[in-house]
Design goal:
By secondary structure, the chain is of the alpha/beta class. It has a single domain, classed as NAD(P)-binding Rossmann-like Domain (Rossmann fold), CATH 3.40.50. It has helices at 22-32, 43-47, 51-58, 70-84, 98-101, 111-134, 162-184, 199-202, 207-217, 225-236, 261-265; strands spanning 10-14, 36-40, 61-62, 87-92, 138-148, 187-193, 247-250.
Length: 268
């Protein structure tokens, strides 16, 4: 259902890899709601070729950028300015841990991989906002979002060093949100999403058990990628202008449940 919530709005969407990606769903929904945007991802992800299909469907340009490279981000924002003038929204939907990928347990983390993971999954959010602010690309009352997970607050052992990355990501949103609010009335938030079957999600060891447990713990069940996209649209729209510096749980109620009857029943 489209209600033109984003009509006239322009943006940049980071992180659509394939049709399972949360960013892919956000792009489809943003297009349906009347937004225009640039799609971006790391050059290696773009070479996989699937993003072209989304670009055609949503009538958007694809511009490669490694989100850890200031030079790439500067080129990306220059291209966005050339195409749109100022923009209204940015989605940071980026995550990667080499320790997770290589199956290295948290207590034995390789620090080179750890730093790389922090840079890609969290510090890149600071870099994106720093370049956006320096180049003055955001319209007043714009909205910037990143995606997080509750492992920032609670221990989920297999989430490994991504837990630390998400804690840093949420802290960056709060702190940059203060400065961007004063500077431009731009709001900055993170959405803490249910476990979702995507390429990044499925990389977590024991993901099936993880997602089933969350399903049984959440009164509303796990939120899908499409439902997450709907929430992102509301946060890019003018209906949420005073929501900023928040970590917003989009998890079917998981974060406030101690134990559910469904999980209790398994121990009776
Ligand atoms: P995904 O694998 O589809 O998306 C991750 C994206 O990060 C990919 O498009 C990848 O190419 C991009 N990326 C990796 N390194 C990059 C770099 N250096 N520069 C630019 N882009 C880079 O998976 P998903 O699940 O859609 O992930 C999106 C976000 O949602 C991530 O921040 C993830 O941590 C978060 N999230 C995912 C959950 C899940 O269970 N799938 C739950 C909660 C949050």
């Amino acid at each position: 259902m489209s209600t033109n919530l984003l009509k006239g709005k322009k943006g940049i969407i980071f992180g659509a890899l394939n049709e399972h990606s949360i960013a892919w769903k956000v792009a489809e929904r943003a297009y349906e709601e009347g937004a225009e945007f640039i799609l971006t991802n790391a050059p290696v992800a773009i070479r996989m070729g699937e993003l072209d299909e989304l670009a055609q469907k949503t009538n958007s340009d694809v511009i490669p950028a490694d989100a850890t490279s200031i030079e790439d981000l500067e080129k990306l924002f220059d291209a966005a300015t050339k195409k749109f003038g100022k923009i209204d929204f940015i989605l940071h939907s980026i995550g990667m841990s080499l320790n997770v990928r290589k199956g290295i347990p948290y207590t034995e983390n390789n620090y080179e991989y750890y730093m790389k993971g922090m840079d890609i999954s969290a510090i890149s959010f600071h870099k994106v906002m720093k370049v956006a602010m320096q180049k003055d690309v955001m319209n007043d009352w714009g909205s910037i979002l990143a995606l997080s997970y509750i492992a920032a607050q609670r221990v989920f052992p297999n989430y490994n060093d991504m837990s630390n990355a998400k804690a840093l990501l949420e802290s960056i949103a709060r702190n940059f949100g203060y400065h961007f609010g004063i500077d431009k009335k731009v709001r900055v938030n993170t959405i803490s999403q249910s476990p979702t079957a995507t390429t990044a999600g499925s990389g977590v060891k024991g993901f099936d058990a993880f997602i089933n447990y969350a399903e049984d713990m959440s009164p509303l069940g796990n939120a899908s990628a499409l439902a997450c996209a709907d929430y992102c649209i509301s946060l890019f729209s003018d209906l949420t202008k005073y929501v900023t510096m928040q970590n917003l749980f989009h998890d079917g109620g998981f974060s406030n449940v101690g134990v559910s009857q469904k999980v209790m029943d398994k121990f009776m």
